[in-house]
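chain below, 119 aa
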Amino acid sequence: MSTCRRRHSTIDRLEPGVRDTVDKMLLSGAYYREVKECLRQNGVKLSISSIAAYAKRLADVRQKSEAIRRDYQALAAAMEQLPELDVAEGIIRVLGNHFKNAAQKASTEENGSAPGKRK
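prediction:
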């Protein structure tokens, strides 16, 4: 059984309001030194590398959340187009599209060309 490491970074332990401010700054493209200054004003001393590591995790979580949202929308659209589908069949269709897209992407990267074009 796999275990997920829990995060215990300084930013993770901030008061919710301060952490929300940091998240908004990072997501809006603020410079890490600006985030560092904001944290300093709130009594938190943190290195730029720690802020960068947190920003990467935040971006990863946001990207995964966005992918889940798109998958849910695709499932809802499939279910709306074909109301006779049960949820399992809808999920299989969405996953099938993921596999097809991944295979096309891998093939494109392997060939070094766009899909549908031959060398």
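The chain has a mean pLDDT of 84. The two ends are 45 Å apart (CA to CA).
thats it, cya
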